[in-house]
């Protein structure tokens, strides 16, 4: 029987724990994924969409100042793209296009990047969460929105968010 010293034993324990964390982390479905912005403390928490015929992904974007936006992704017709939208205090129920436009803070394509840096579109629910999300032009839209004011968000998020966890 081989006897291991304390440093070797500690290394084996840490490696085993790290391997377990990586496999659990890698198995996270997109609808339970949690992302953090690489520049600010803004975060994205995905949630199951349910039975919507048009919305393929749902999420909340939160900021350190307490601002929380509702987000959704709808796939476009024709040239298929994952079109994301962030909304602030939209009315509920039967609303018009004008009402939705008035409360929409950002619209753009949501891209995903894997661990090898390959770029694709945001996957559908039930699919493994990508390592990185790229929300095209999020920063400029947020900077021009009414949220970037004295009582709103203080730091504009950059367009890139990294997978930081998985909800249970």
List the helices and strands and how they pair.
Elements (H helix, E strand, L loop, with lengths): L5 H21 L6 E5 L5 E5 L7 E8 L5 E8 L6 E6 L9 H7 E10 L5 E3 L10 E4 L2 H7 L15 E7 L2
Antiparallel strand pairs: 1-2, 1-9, 2-3, 3-4, 4-5, 5-6, 6-7, 6-8, 8-9
Would you write up a description of this structure?
This protein has 168 residues and is α+β, with helices and mostly antiparallel strands. The chain has one domain. It is built from three helices and nine strands. Strands 1-2-3-4-5-6-8-9 form an eight-stranded antiparallel beta barrel. Strand 3 and strand 4 form a beta hairpin. About 11% of the residues have low confidence.
Tag the structure with descriptive keywords.
alpha+beta, eight-stranded antiparallel β-barrel, 3 helices, 9 strands, globular
Task: Kindly summarize this structure in a few lines.
The chain has 168 residues and is of the alpha+beta class.
How would you sum up the major sheet?
Answer: 8 strands, antiparallel, barrel
Question: Which parts are unreliable, with pLDDT below 50 for 5 consecutive residues or more?
Answer: 6-24
Which structural class best describes the helix and strand composition?
alpha+beta
What's the alpha carbon Rg, rounded to whole Å?
19 Å
> How many discrete structural domains?
1
Which H/E pattern describes the elements? HEEEEEHEEEHE
End-to-end C-alpha gap: 40 Å
> DSSP helix count?
3
Number of strands: 9
Walk across the major sheet and give the strand order. Answer: 1-2-3-4-5-6-8-9
- Cα shape: globular
- Binned, the helix content reads 10-25%
What is the mean pLDDT?
A: 83
Strand share of the residues?
25-35%
């Amino acid at each position: 029987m081989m006897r291991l010293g304390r440093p070797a034993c500690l290394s084996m324990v840490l490696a085993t724990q790290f391997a377990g964390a990586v496999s659990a982390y890698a198995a996270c479905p997109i609808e339970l994924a949690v992302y953090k912005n690489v520049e600010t403390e803004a975060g994205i928490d995905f949630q199951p969409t349910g039975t919507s015929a048009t919305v393929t992904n749902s999420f909340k974007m939160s900021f350190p100042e307490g601002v929380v936006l509702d987000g959704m992704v709808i796939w476009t017709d024709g040239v298929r793209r994952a079109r994301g939208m962030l909304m602030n205090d939209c009315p509920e129920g039967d609303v018009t296009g004008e009402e939705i436009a008035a409360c929409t803070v950002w619209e753009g394509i949501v891209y995903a990047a894997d661990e090898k840096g390959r770029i694709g579109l945001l996957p559908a629910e039930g699919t493994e969460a990508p390592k990185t999300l790229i929300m095209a032009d999020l920063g400029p839209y947020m900077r021009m929105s009414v949220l970037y004011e004295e009582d709103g968000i203080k730091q504009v998020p950059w367009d890139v968010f990294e997978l930081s966890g998985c909800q249970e």
